[in-house]
């Protein structure tokens, strides 16, 4: 109740007088309590998504736990949406080093364009993609060893009958093709090697059996080629290694050459068919006015995704989605709320500028403004603090005292320069101040060490106050995040071409504090 919560503050002074009521109000207005989110399980069920997903690649071998968790969960949802909409092209906005893009491409055979404004990120994405492909080949090698051992076991355990062996090979091939997304990958050499092992196991004295085997080989040739192509067609580009004659133990040279030519032809066709599952890192700055056709020449029906798109980029992703008919769906997880541009933050309003907040007409009509301090608070992680991952009080204290120093000694109240992560590199408060002053391009020679320590001692007893103040900001953080996310959702609700839109909690907030995705699907006719 608003009346009850308002009593947390003094009516006259507007100071906080009841911390307990303040915390209850913050919890009441948090996204988890408002009941506006759609459970991820319900979304996957509605999309008829397979919650098991594919298990060919383990991203935690190339990513930290946080990124691995995000990529696995989000990629499953993106794949389900793509299948539901009948699309194979995905555009990853703000793709960074391509973690999500590579995984979507290799794991789900989607054609992914990763767009990032940083060329260094794009280059990093290329390198990351190479590592993932190498990892993919490791699974193929394991599958190769498994097939070899199975072939040896069959050879030792029972006499070879050509008809039975060909049936076994075909059954294994079909099973591997159908389970390719959930099993270790199959290399075409292994199939040929199995053929060779079968033939070599035929007793030389049994000419009738040998003749039967050759006849069976020829009769099954067409069917085998089709099945091999089915396997190859689902592999991503460069997943198939070059065929080597050492893998084939065929008795006659002409048969070996024949098989090689056939495999080369099949691989060529497979590479062409697998072009739809490539990942393309691109460098470009994305704005609300960006024409994707200028960046992607073969743009087709697709969906937009963004994993922790920074500041205004999250808002612009939604604007591009609503404006472009080719884009059938969007799944966007934003971050860095402090970098959002606000229409009503400054009195100087630019009519032509596209703002990050507010997006919906409802808040625009009210002239709503958060302010930088509130947006900074929205970036804090309540769930992490709740499990004991406390705020970095000492570094916050250092930064607060530094602010006093540069205002009182240098008369600076605003600067375009940033201190950054100076605290982690500093050995003491004096070292921190001097490093920071150099970054801010201020002359530190006018400030002796004893003067720096005087400031430290003057405010040291107020460190507990600072910690309490920041804890209140943490408690309030979810409420401010709600405002930003609901603004984006309301913007989508205002559009006529949207069939469904919602907020979905994707990630564990302890692992990934910015855990909510804005998702929307267009009407089928759009």
UniProtKB/TrEMBL annotation:
Q: Which InterPro entries match?
A: Methyltranfer_dom, METTL25, SAM-dependent_MTases_sf
Chain ranges of the Methyltransferase domain: 66-198, 251-343
State the superkingdom. Answer: Eukaryota
Provide the protein name. MET25 protein
Q: Which organism is it from?
A: Sinosuthora webbiana
Query: Organism classification, top ranks?
Result: Eukaryota, Metazoa, Chordata, Craniata, Vertebrata
Q: What is the name of the gene encoding this protein?
A: Mettl25
